[in-house]
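Predict structure. Chain length: 128.
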Amino acid sequence: MLIHTQHLRFSKAGRTLVDDVNLSIERGQIIGLIGPNGAGKTSLLKLLANVQKADSGLYEFEGKPIAQHAEKSLAKQMAYLAQQATAHWPLTVRKVIELGRLPYQRFGRDLTRDDQHKVIQAAKQTDV
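Prediction complete.
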């Protein structure tokens, strides 16, 4: 099981945004998250991407609690890009893809040839 949750709950400013979510996702499975505005879809995605912490409930990633995973290890396996994110400086599509290589780099280092190759592969696979 890649992702497993039980009774996941999250509140913000006194308002419950995610309530009692039970979810199991297998590796390679494609799912859709459908619901009206304000239903908690984005909040759930932030919880699953470990951007926000649940108030209560169980969240396991690859069979162990999310809190037991090192952040750098998680960053190599998942990412979250906000739909309405504001960039405070110009970013090309290539630069956004390159940001996905940060967990694989040492601080302050340039992209390696392998990183550059993977960025080009990702752009081709996603047709951007």
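Summary: The chain has a mean pLDDT of 93.
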